[in-house]
Task: inverse folding
């Protein structure tokens, strides 16, 4: 039940200690964890921008409805989706499967054909929605990753993707900012830290169907 | 780096050992972890159906494009969204905040008003989309929760929500099945278990912006 204690410790940090920095090793674990996130078909239509630059973070505050934690945090994680998931992107995935697993091309051919047809015919909005859902899987994984390592975090949907794109040059990298997550250490006077966690009772959110 | 080893161990299990069952304690950890998942505004528009009934699981296989792991697994987790997130649902949340934290009603009033206006005016499709994204956070959390506890899992978007609704009686509970995740132990002959993990290189999916 150690994990349950860790997840209970986690809360959406509203004020970070702007003097305490995460170590390079902690950032490394987060990056590796992000890269191991499960995604639909294993396609990984995501990138993670890791901002550790207070001046840039301050610029992002203005595009985050003034939420100061973006400026205070040791780092700001910006989970981005790929703007283009096209035939080349899918082909690239299958090339990687062939390389890593040595799978013969003829074994992969039916699935490759199926995915290519699927992704080439899908409207761009559907693809963006599909990709953005994968960003939420990454968020769920990263929140837990941080809690386990006693790293404070604040998951955020409320920000201006256009503003983030401008400050971080995301469009030129083919990315759209989808979720934001400042990480670091809670300030000793963050009043949110002391508040009891509010949750629907387990009996209300779990339905057991047993044979 | 223990977590990285655990996440690397995880894979989308295609064949489960149908003789090995998870313990009540393992199921308990998963339920608690689900209940602690972060969600937008803390509203938790989700429920988790935990199916441990092979006869019912067999019925679900037909609604999962024939994917046998749903029948073999020790349990099938069905992450569901609430079909109705209305004023009463939001009020219920604020009542809980008041109870748990003893927050005076006047302190909560502005946020309460804001959320109520937000949720009452939003079209039903927007609310369902918002809720379904939260289901993906839960999936990300549960996949990591399982990996840490050496529980095998298979995240699935491919199934018939209508079929699941029929078999599990979800509509009468006000729920829509959104994501499915059979869990248990990998079969010793699951050929997927031995395959190397295919991932875009970390250098390709991480962008560092440092001051």
Result:
């Amino acid at each position: 039940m150690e994990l349950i204690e860790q997840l209970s410790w986690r809360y959406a940090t509203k004020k970070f200690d702007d003097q305490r920095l995460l170590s390079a090793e902690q950032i490394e674990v987060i990056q590796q964890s992000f890269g191991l996130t499960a995604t639909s078909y294993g396609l990984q239509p995501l990138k993670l921008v890791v901002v550790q630059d207070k001046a840039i973070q301050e610029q992002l505050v203005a595009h985050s409805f003034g939420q100061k934690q973006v400026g205070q945090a040791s780092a700001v994680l910006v989970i981005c989706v790929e703007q283009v998931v096209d035939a080349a992107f899918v082909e690239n995935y299958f090339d990687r499967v062939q390389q890593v697993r040595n799978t013969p091309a003829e074994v992969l051919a039916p699935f490759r054909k199926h995915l290519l047809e699927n992704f080439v015919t899908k409207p761009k909005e559907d693809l963006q929605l599909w990709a953005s859902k994968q960003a939420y899987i990454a968020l769920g994984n990263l929140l837990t990753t941080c809690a386990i390592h006693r790293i404070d975090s604040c998951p955020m949907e409320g920000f201006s993707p256009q503003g983030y794109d401008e400050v971080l040059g995301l469009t030129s990298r083919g990315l759209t900012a989808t979720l934001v997550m400042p990480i670091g250490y809670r300030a000793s006077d963050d009043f949110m830290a002391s508040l009891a966690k509010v949750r629907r009772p387990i009996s209300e959110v779990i339905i057991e169907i047993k044979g």
